[in-house]
TrEMBL record:
GO terms for cellular component: cytoplasm; nucleus
Protein family (similarity comment): Belongs to the GLYK kinase family.
One GO MF term attached to the UniProt entry: kinase activity
Descriptive protein name: YGR205W-like protein
Subcellular location: Cytoplasm; Nucleus
Record organism: Saccharomyces cerevisiae x Saccharomyces kudriavzevii (strain VIN7) (Yeast)
Lineage: Eukaryota, Fungi, Dikarya, Ascomycota, Saccharomycotina
Keywords noted in UniProt: ATP-binding, Cytoplasm, Kinase, Nucleotide-binding, Nucleus, Transferase
Chief site of localization: cytoplasm
InterPro entries (alphabetical): P-loop_NTPase (IPR027417)
Length: 290
């Protein structure tokens, strides 16, 4: 692990080692959610997996610790093709990635099982989906089998690049960027916010990676793709990476600054880490809400 990644991980562990024990001390039997949010390439996926390993080592003997990415809930390839046709005039919904390209029914079913496990004492496990981005020449598809995790769930880690983005109300939130293709994406985003970070039933800790320039995403994704090319010999060209990131930029421009400044991803507390283009931490802020 490089020094910069370790620095990010150390801040994150310090935050969780304070608030996770406090949660268990309350005696609350509801699952504790840990939301990770940050731009593509910022290191959130890497860090969230390291945090999963840390929490399993610390609590795994007595608690059920689980991890998923919002990407695991992408629509199947077949259903994505149907979405492509339904919104064929919207380039942002052509292919996976943005709000609207996930199986919200499946996500709702998984959450219902997690939260209502006491109503089904005979149910011992819940299956979390897994998604394979390499299928169909990179278009991706859901894996035929998922990951079974035991119930009840005590800690659930969920990471994703737009977790915490709050949709705008047309006619109330006046923003020139809420036009064209973003109107459909914004409408889809309500389902995610209501189900996850705005859901009053979910008690959560939030970990947010922000940056001094959102255009750093281009460099981070290029770096990731070059590493992939060196390892497996295939991947996107620089031009393809740039076009890939372009699809996400309208969402960053519309939601990202307000999301970061709200410091409200977690319903209990939120850690916000500012990282520069080299992923070096330049600021840390913790907001305790409860």
């Amino acid at each position: 692990m490089c020094d910069k990644s370790k620095e990010i991980l150390d801040y994150t562990i310090e935050f969780l080692d304070k608030y996770v024990p406090e949660w268990f001390e309350t005696g609350n039997k509801s699952p504790l959610f840990i939301f990770f949010s940050g731009p593509q390439g910022s290191g959130k996926s890497f860090t969230s997996i390291q945090i999963y390993d840390h929490l399993v080592e610390k609590y795994g003997d007595t608690k059920s610790v689980n991890f998923a990415s919002i990407d695991d809930f992408y629509l199947t390839h077949e259903d994505q093709l149907k979405l492509n046709e339904q919104f064929k005039g919207n380039k942002l919904l052509q292919g996976r990635g943005l709000p609207g390209t996930h199986d919200m029914k499946l996500l709702q079913e998984v959450l219902n099982i997690i939260f209502n496990n006491d109503q089904h004492p005979d149910k011992k496990t819940v299956t979390l989906p897994k998604y394979d981005k390499s299928q169909y020449n990179g278009e991706g598809d859901r894996c035929p089998t998922g990951q079974k995790v035991k119930l009840p769930v005590d800690i659930f880690i969920l990471e994703g690049w737009f977790l915490g983005f709050n949709p705008l109300l047309q006619g109330i939130d006046n923003n020139d960027l809420l036009t064209g293709d973003m109107v459909d994406v914004n409408a889809k985003l309500f389902m995610y916010s209501d189900l996850l970070w705005r859901n009053p039933e979910i008690k959560s800790l939030g970990i947010v990676f922000t940056t001094d320039d959102i255009n750093n995403v281009y460099g981070w994704r290029l770096q990731q793709e070059h590493e992939l090319l060196s390892k497996v010999g295939r991947g996107m060209s620089d031009e393809q990476v740039h076009a890939f990131v372009d699809r996400y930029m309208p969402s960053y421009k519309l939601y990202f600054n307000d999301f970061v400044h709200s410091e409200g991803l977690g319903s209990i507390a939120t850690l916000t880490l500012g990282i520069d283009s080299d992923r070096k931490v330049y600021s840390t802020k913790t907001r305790c809400i409860e």
